[in-house]
Design a protein that fits this description.
With 233 residues, this protein is α/β, with parallel strands linked by helices. The chain has a single domain, classed as Rossmann fold (3-Layer(aba) Sandwich), CATH 3.40.50. The protein is 31% helix and 26% strand. It is built from seven helices and ten strands. α3 runs parallel beside α5. The longest helix is centred in the C-terminal third of the chain and has 16 residues. The N terminus is likely disordered. It binds adenosine-5'-diphosphate (ADP) and magnesium ion.
Length: 233
């Protein structure tokens, strides 16, 4: 395991700081998926991101989530210059500082709800009893204690997403990144998940939530729009 890089003097108090960061997918027909973008997201903000299908929302989230490297510009997460990190250090930073919630849940199918949340703490170095206790507490937070031993296939969509939220928050990350978290849910269940996320924001979590649904976008304090890879406030 690689140790997390030291934060020296943060360049900014922002959790997310993009400076001219953009991404062009290479290939015979390169795709300019994210135009060079300047953006700061401060601790405690709840930002929603809207835009039509194919506009670059997931590309934006993948850059902010350290899943893809920008092909131009710089990205600082919590003051750490992600561009300067080796792949293993990026992975460690991502595991510790970012929690993801995806439209299709991405839970491990042959692991219980509790194991899915416990496994998210592999990078913490915490003893296993502590990891289990944290996972149980996170499941409690999302109202899923009663299904802790259940496999994801036996859970409803809304229940799976609540487990995914527990997994995302268990390491108390600097940033929760949600990519269409209610996209696969009926409207009543979507409301439950949105209220859960709103409650986490009230507790101080910094959230960036992508949606194509203007109603959902209205839950944020601040909404960004992406069109043809261009992010505007
Ligand atoms: P959204 O999430 O808003 O639907 P995406 O960020 O997934 O949009 O995609 C933005 C653009 O980048 C689209 O034109 C898409 O076809 C293209 N794209 C996405 N991923 C890749 C990839 N791996 N290689 C090439 N082009 C891609
Ligand atoms: Mg997308």
């Amino acid at each position: 395991m690689t140790s997390e890089p030291m934060i020296n003097t943060p360049m900014t108090d922002a959790v997310v700081a993009l400076r001219g960061a953009g991404l062009t997918y290479p290939g015979p027909q390169p795709v300019k998926a994210l135009a060079p973008t300047d953006l700061a997201v401060r601790a405690g903000e709840f930002v929603t991101v809207v835009g039509p299908s194919g506009s670059g929302k997931s590309t934006f989230l993948n850059v902010v989530g350290l899943l893809d490297r920008p092909t131009c510009g710089t990205y600082h997460l919590d003051g750490v210059d992600a561009g300067g990190l080796k792949e293993a250090d990026r992975t460690a930073l991502r595991a510790r500082r970012i929690g993801f919630v995806f439209q299709t849940f991405h839970l491990l199918p042959y692991r219980s709800a509790l194991e899915n949340v416990t496994l998210a703490q592999l990078y913490t170095g915490l003893p296993s009893a502590r990891r289990h206790a944290n996972a149980a507490e996170a499941l409690e937070r999302v109202g899923m204690s009663h299904r802790a031993q259940a496999l994801p296939t036996t859970l409803s969509g809304g229940e799976r997403q609540r487990v995914a939220v527990a997994r995302a928050l268990v390491n108390r990350p600097s940033l929760l990144l949600c990519d269409e978290p209610t996209g696969n849910l009926d409207s009543a269940t979507a409301t439950v998940v949105l209220e859960l996320l709103t409650g986490l924001h009230d507790e101080g979590f910094t959230i960036i939530l992508i949606t194509h649904d203007p109603q959902v976008a209205g839950r944020g304090q601040r909404t960004l729009t992406i069109r043809d890879g261009i992010v505007s406030e």
